[in-house]
Write a structure and sequence with these properties.
The chain is an alpha/beta fold. It contains 16 helices and seven strands. It is flat and about 105 Å long. The C terminus is likely disordered.
Amino acid sequence: MYKEFFGLRANPFNVNPDPRYLFLTRHTEEALACLTYGIQSRKGFVLLTGEVGTGKTTLINKLLEWLRVQQVPTAFVFNSRLNVPQFLDYMMADFGIPSDSRSKSQILLRLYNWLLDRYRAGETAVLIVDEAQGLSDELLEEIRMMTNLETFTEKLLQIVLVGQPELEQKLKQPNLRQLRQRLTLRAKTYPLTAEETKSYVAQRLRIAGWNGQPIFDSESLLAIHQYSCGIPRVVNLVCEHCLVSAFVDQQRIVTPNVVEVVARDFDLVENPFSGVPRSQLQQPVPPTSPAKTASNGSSPSQAQAHSQIADGRRTRAATSPESRQREVSQPEEVLETASPSGSPMSPGPRVVPFGAVKASFPDPNPVPSSPMQPVSQDSSTEKFNLVDALKTLANLADRLRESEQDVPKERKL
């Protein structure tokens, strides 16, 4: 519909895993080299994993294309929802091995003889299983047993397991540890970076017959990368609908507004379905909100610390025997308050017993004390800190409650 409008010969963003459109990043080249090396060296088991839409099947189709050019017998199983007999039937049919018997032992014996003939002819047989994360444990164990089809020096059957990251988690189960130990090579596919996304879009346009006229500007490509999280399949989806929207509006260049509208239509703005959480692709931002000030001028952490200290002092003072004896000897006390200084560490209320006629009183002009500098002591003035005052207040409150219970009702205030 839009090919003639943008000067293209084919659809550049088809979601089918066409090996012609394989974009070779550094990770993709490493994965392809790992697969080819494992097959040529007869390593037995090779594992390929990657997130949904990162190009695993396209990479496998490229590998199959190379194997057919090399005339290597292959069997490609793309449906993992099979039991053991169905899997064996499908594999034998794809290899082109005739089998009239339905017995498992006869099928394995015919497969072994066929692999020996290929080995004597200098050929290598390859079995590729896609969507392997959906295989049952029983079928995975059956596939592992196939690697026992070997000579004294080399494996007769090369097996490539392809799946999502759930496959790696599945292989960590204790009952599959034998299979995990036989994985000689591992390869992975990854999302595209911002620069790789730009090159990816340009390559697909060139393969589709692009004449070089600008279609996506730099800001649009950056927006496509952000909304797709670098997942090639989602990049294809967004670009395809951006071209359709631009064609409807008769715009030669796709603007960031068009990309945003398409992203919202597919719910990629707040809830991307790319398979990779945005939190894993972005740097976490540490909380930088300033601490709020408490009513007394101190921060919440300071106020909490003072409260915890006071609670601890109050508990110890209420349960100690010395405090109980002191409460009996001094039945009544009255509170006096030092003049406020506005500092959270300034002296608080002090307690003076009635029996002390020569009790000392606070200095009318007290000097605020700091946590690191103690207040100078004077012979005629009694100084103490906030913790001691809170401790005394706690003692007084406990004693008043106890004395109130012993005093007759007519004497209670």
